[in-house]
Amino acid sequence: MTQALSLTITPRAQTGRSASRRVRKINQIPAILYGKHTKPQTIAIDAPEFTRLLRSVAGRALIIELNHKDSADKALSFIQEIQRDPITDKFRHVDLQEVKADEKLEINVPISLTGEAYGVKTQGGVLETSAHTLRVRCLPKDLPPVIVIDVSELKINESLKVAGLKPIAGVEFRDVPGQPIVGVLSIAVEEVAAPVATAAAGAAAPAAGAAAPAAGAAKPGDAKAPAAGAKPGDAKAAAPAAKPAAKK
User: In a 10 Å sphere around its CB, with 0-12 CB exposed, 13-18 middle and 19+ buried, how is residue 232 labelled?
Assistant: First the structure.
């Protein structure tokens, strides 16, 4: 396990929106510490100290040692959730999960890919990542900060699933064994299919246009189409009436 980071916490008796605003005004962050065997504790943490802590965490799964202010009590935890203001991006609330050194915990660990896949480098495929974290169960001392996966051997149309991961001492993978993590896809089919589909659509359009008769055009063989508004059987409407012959 990577050496635990530390964070100072201060007990907080008052709760609610007004109390939380007062905590933020003194540059602290309202927080809560959950424990499997203890009641949730409302606490406050120093905002600058927490900012430095996050830089050290850098997206990894790490155990944090909590030091109670004005007390010798210590606890182990990890960050469960961080809430930020959507406009200012300042911290609004932090959830911490307490763990025991001799008790297994479940946590999501980020994935780090290494190497260049054979299917991408040699066969012209595209690397696709299906999962960015994996759920693990282990003791705090066995917690890996990241799960490193070497994709060098992946060929085109191959994928690595949870069941194919290399074992990590003391770590149990909790995700479904058949869940894909990363694979190499072939793009040849998509490149060929797209032009063919476009050409077929273009050829169908003129044919469909040619099949439709022009608006108002007479049908083949229809020598005398009745005039608009003429009644069926009205022969006079079919053609103009003939003028009487001039008298001699």
Answer: exposed
